[in-house]
């Protein structure tokens, strides 16, 4: 029986960095964006009918608080309760982030320079609507926007399940756009009929969503351009093979393009994990998807955990789980990851489902330059400067500006500064 996860060495490790979307999808998404930009609500409706977002051509494009509350009320009590509990944990973690971002002032001669963090006014939060409903993504994005102070929060998701609408209610969303794909991103970026243009668009999606976000970035802010989901497990010979295999399969069932990777210094663990993968796949309802994803994955066999950390940093994965005897110590020195899970008790799926930290994370090696979605995604740094007019203490600062402006050949700049330096 051939191994489900082939073994590689550190020297053979591929580069995870890749273009987030192909040129053909970008071109097709650009045409959809232009159609909505030019045609507004009529074009949005026509595209939504064409792509199956609106089975009923006369159905509303936008749902409001009443419909979201009704969906929540229609859920069994246990599902209502879990949405509330998860929402509270996400909110608490986002509030922790916000609490660290306090306004600051730096004293200057004759005045001060300051900064503060200000929320965008309106945000669009996208949640995929594919094989499975993803209420967790609604909670992760919309609650974080609310904590950041965003005044108006839109959620967009095609063919929303009851749970997805209920999550939007729990998160405090103002409106729900029942449209997906590039057409939803177009409506959020440009506005279309009842949908106003937003200032920030966040949330995971398929390649059409990713392409559209790439094209509107700059007009609006975005969180990131995410690709297929990834998990790297760094494990030693004492790791629980059943837990390692379960975590790899949990990642693999996301999508046929998902990437599960095991990094280990133990041949014995590799053999035990292989056996567990076969055992668990035999009863896994999503086994066909997981098997496809396992074909993308592999084992990185390293000499020791120090080499394992080098492998993990080279991969810079979305999720990095450390299953070792002393995970906190063994994780020291790790630099590049979207989210870190320490020890077998901290399963990656607990991060997916609302332990607190956000599950919207960078993929494709971009954890080297991008972090998780957070309150900062919805905030702008605004700076300010105050100097007392005519204050002698401020003249030296102004005199430096005169010199630097003339260095750059900008005489009007120099003269404006000279007036403040008492040279005018």
Care to describe what's here?
- The chain is an alpha/beta fold and about 425 residues long.
- It has three domains: about 25-220, 3-Layer(aba) Sandwich (Rossmann fold); about 225-365, 3-Layer(aba) Sandwich (Rossmann fold), CATH 3.40.50; about 390-420, no CATH class.
- Helices cover about 45% and strands about 15% of the residues.
- The protein has 15 helices and 15 strands.
- It has helices at about 25-50, 65-75, 75-100, 135-150, 160-170, 180-190, 205-215, 240-250, 265-280, 285-295, 305-315, 325-330, 350, 390-405, 410-420; strands at about 5-10, 60-65, 105-110, 110-120, 120-125, 150-155, 175, 200, 220, 230-235, 260-265, 300, 320-325, 340, 380-385.
- It has a six-stranded parallel beta sheet, sandwiched between helices.
- Strand 10 (about 230-235), helix 8 and strand 11 (about 260-265) form a beta-alpha-beta unit.
- Helix 1 crosses helix 7 (about 205-215) and helix 3 (about 75-100) packs across helix 5.
- The protein starts with 6 loop residues before the first strand and ends with a helix.
- The mean pLDDT is about 95.
């Amino acid at each position: 029986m051939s191994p489900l996860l082939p073994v590689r060495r550190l020297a053979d490790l591929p580069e995870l960095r890749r273009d987030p979307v192909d040129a053909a999808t970008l071109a097709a998404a650009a045409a959809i964006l232009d159609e909505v930009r030019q045609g507004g609500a009529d074009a949005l409706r026509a595209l939504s009918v064409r792509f199956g977002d609106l089975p009923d051509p006369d159905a509303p494009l936008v749902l409001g608080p009443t419909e979201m509350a009704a969906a929540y009320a229609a859920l069994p009590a246990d599902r209502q309760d879990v949405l509330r509990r998860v929402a509270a944990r996400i909110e608490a973690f986002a509030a922790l982030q916000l609490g660290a971002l306090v306004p600051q002032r730096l004293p200057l001669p004759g005045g001060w320079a300051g900064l503060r963090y200000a929320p965008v006014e309106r945000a669009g939060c996208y949640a995929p609507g594919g094989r499975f409903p993803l209420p967790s993504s609604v909670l992760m994005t919309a609650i974080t926007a609310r904590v950041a102070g965003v005044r108006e929060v839109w959620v967009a998701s095609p063919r929303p399940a009851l749970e997805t609408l209920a999550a939007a209610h729990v998160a405090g969303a103002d409106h729900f756009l029942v449209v997906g794909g590039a057409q939803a991103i177009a409506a959020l970026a440009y506005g279309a009929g009842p949908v106003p243009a937003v200032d920030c668009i966040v949330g995971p999606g398929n390649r059409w969503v990713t392409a559209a976000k790439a094209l509107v970035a700059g007009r609006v802010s975005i969180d990131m351009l995410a690709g297929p989901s990834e998990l790297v497990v760094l494990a030693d010979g004492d790791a629980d093979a059943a837990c390692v295999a379960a975590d790899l399969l949990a990642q693999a069932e996301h999508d046929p393009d998902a990437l599960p990777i095991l990094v280990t210094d133990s041949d014995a663990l590799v053999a035990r994990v292989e056996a567990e993968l076969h055992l668990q796949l035999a009863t896994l309802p999503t086994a066909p998807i997981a098997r496809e994803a396992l074909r993308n994955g592999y084992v990185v066999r390293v000499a020791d955990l120090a080499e394992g950390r080098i492998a993990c940093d080279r991969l810079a994965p979305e999720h990095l789980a450390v299953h070792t005897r002393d995970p906190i110590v063994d994780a020291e020195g790790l630099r590049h990851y979207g989210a870190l899970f320490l020890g077998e008790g901290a399963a990656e799926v607990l991060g997916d489902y609302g332990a607190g930290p956000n599950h919207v994370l960078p993929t494709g090696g971009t954890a080297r330059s991008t972090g998780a979605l957070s309150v900062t995604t919805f905030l702008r740094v605004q700076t300010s400067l105050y100097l007392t007019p005519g204050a002698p203490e401020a003249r030296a600062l102004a005199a430096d500006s005169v010199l630097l402006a003339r260095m750059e050949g900008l005489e009007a700049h120099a003269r404006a500064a000279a007036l403040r330096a008492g040279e005018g």
